[in-house]
Hints:
The structure holds 2 protein chains of 2 kinds. Chain A is of the alpha+beta class. Chain A has helices spanning about 1-15, 105-115, 165, and strands at about 25-30, 45-50, 55-60, 70-75, 85-90, 95-105, 120-125, 135-140, 145, 155. Chain A has one domain (about 1-145): Immunoglobulin-like (Sandwich), CATH 2.60.40. Chain A has an 8-stranded antiparallel barrel. Chain B is an alpha+beta fold.
Amino acid sequence: MRSRLFLALALALTAARAFAADYQANLGPMPLDDETKAVIAGRGEATASSDGKTMTVKGSFHGLPSNATEAHIFSSISPGVPGTKLLDLEVTKATSGTVSGTFKLTAAEAAALRTGKLYVQINSEKAPETYPWGPKGTLWGWLLPAHVTVGQDVPQQDHWFLPQYDTAKR
Amino acid sequence: MRKHSLLLAGAGFALIAALGTVAFGQGAPNISKAGPFTAAQVTSGQQQFDANCAPCHLADLSGTNDAPALAGAPFMGAWGKRTTAQLYSKIATTMPAGAGGSLSPQQYTDIVAYILDRNGAHAGGTAFTPGTAVQIDTIASGRATTPTRTAQTSGRQESASASGQGNAPQQSNFARAMSGQHVPDPGTFTLPSRLGLTLKGNIQNYQPVTEAMMLNPPASDWLMYRRNYQGWSYSPLDQINTSNVGTLQLKWMWSVAQNGTLEGTPMVHSGVLFLWSPGNTVQAFNATTGELLWENRLGPDPRRPGPGPSTAETRSLGLWGNNVYVNTPEGYVYALDARTGEQVWKTHITDELKSPRGGMFGGSTGGLIIIKGRVLVGMTNCGANGDNNHCYISAYDAKTGKRDWKFVTTALTGQPGGDTWGKLPDNMRKGAETWIAGTYDPELNTTYWGTAQAKPWRRDLRGSGDGATDYANSTLALDPETGKLKWFYNHAPGESLDLDEVFERVLVDHGSEKSLLTIGKPGILWKLDRVTGKFIAARETVFNNVYENFDEKTGKVVYRKDIRDQKVDQWLASCPGPEGGHDWQATSYHQPTDALIIPLSQSCVFMLGNGSQTYFEMPGTDGNMGRLSAYRTSDLKPLWSFQQRAPFLTGVISTAGNVAFVGDFDRVFRAVDVRNGKTLWKTRLATTVQGYPVTFSVDGHQYVAVTTGLGGGSPELKPGTMLTEVHRPPHGYALYVFGLPDSQ
């Protein structure tokens, strides 16, 4: 397990030098229930590349029930826990489109990226205003270390990506 | 100091909530403003609530399991700052569970009026409408100021006696439909029908199930829940194998009642297949032809149309001697003659003890296990704070039904672990239900059971502080002949998020190492020494963010700080959520490859108290809620995994033919190669494939049986909301039996 983690880190470092996508996020609906699922929906993907001092985010989305209004990078204490707004992304004001942005990172922000604590959030017009993660939140996804993903029903042998095993601790 | 004050306040709130209307009018905040509803709406709303909501939320609105409390501090914490219009919208779009929008607007407005009334709001002269928006804590205090009206139905147990008086809700709906009133989908009705032995059997040459058979089950049979005492769900049959499983075909099927909850395990012996289905209907079939041999409808019928709650099923029957044994959600244990279906004996696990909340105390939904002539059953939904009742595991003489022993599953004052509940008196120590029957090691003469978390499951309401709340969330090792506790291991001390560690205990040997493996909702695969109860190893299988730290070398868990400091009006994120990384869909131990094949679920919740839950995809899963994974039990090494959008809703079986079978939420029943996880065969059935598949053989022909059905708790409810593209019929409860073509 430990050697596998080292291997992943080594690959990540190699990728950083090549300025490839070091992190990936699958964008899915923010918390919903039967009452709100009609206005909180859609899917997307995002990647982030970083040399430790800057970060470039690129992504796309589709299937929003209403037009996107804004998009941000948020910082949280852990994947799956809503956090606070950190950076603004450019976003297509439509139900499908792209998000993007390039930023200088502080040391703390770089550490947050490295440890899986940054996420992409896209807001849209008709999403609820009153949820505590912020008004209009529609899609989100945590930027996690780039890893192999396989399609549905396709078995993967041996190790399976899990953020708590495969994300740097510090 | 602040923390202690909050805990004391939490304890007080819990007591108030538990006492409900007993405390009405005593010190309630003075809210004199009239509520936006009428007394007539309250009266009507109570009737609607009792018929449609009380089966899950209970008649005193105190809630149970997935159904949150709708009165008192938990309700006010979640809803006090929101409006009546939001409450209406929530209820009208989501309730009854699995059938949101199925009642009329008037029924929903009246139910909201009743809930407000039970929280101390006063009726006025203006009728409540869907658009009426008043902040709830400006009109309600959380304490009722009027006495509870006489409940027409007061809980799951009181809905009917087992003698057949239980059809009132169905008759009422039927009558309403016939008179042209709005009713839920009429296709989901269980029409009033006669209970009792509706078809008497005459099975000749039935071979009694012996002690030797129980210890070493014949390859052809499926005699108990997980097939053997060790809980493997592994069959030595190999006629169906990786090379021919692709030719499987349907041999016969049988439709059962089209409502309630179906999560059962067919049993097979002597060429007879026994099945439990909603309404506590027990049937015997010719296992090869599907011919009905006998039927005993024990009743009561499901209380309302549509899918039932997680408290309305039983997960396995038991076979011993010439009898088939059944424990029912209403708390009865029956012995029926396996040859005729006639009742041999019947008892109640609490002797029909009346519950302070109405109905009878004690339910039993987790199936049973028969050890040395004793029928061992657990309990569920067994205790509201303030009364002196507790959950227990109990044993009954298989010949007579006489209770032999019982073991209370919460540590009481003076017992080992009794000091882990803070200063809570014994009558406030609740929970620790047993949702799945235990397993058994004949050599060690020890039976192993898992327990659910303490109740209320939020520590801010429970009042036990940082205490571990033994024996909740634990593995219990008991002497099956006396019920004496040999050891216990608390997996998640002080659990606070409805993430219990209650599911199957699988017994595996590696040389001299005698281990016990289990996995609960947090998704941690545990390995214990089953002789001593000592921790051996653990492995996280899904993403988990509820533990700030989990030490795989010691098994120690530390909850995230905001969970430790939780408050009733605070949103909390939980990955996994109450659907669980693993739930009741039990694992299979494939002995030839030392692989434990585990159905896993990948979803999270963001919850406000226990009053509102919103769901989201687990990070790192690409939106796939279902995962099937195999882990090597010797070292917990992952072997293979695949994931898919729909979660798996059956247990797993594996066979000597190197095939494993599993079914899912989206109606797919499949066979995979246990060595690499590749799907070898799949078919699509009428509705969600839900229950515990089994395999058996008759006259040299191997078969695979599985049920389809709906109902249940979080494993049904979460994907039901999140998988918006998955469409399932509200019917399709059935048993399917597959086999190879006759030419093979």
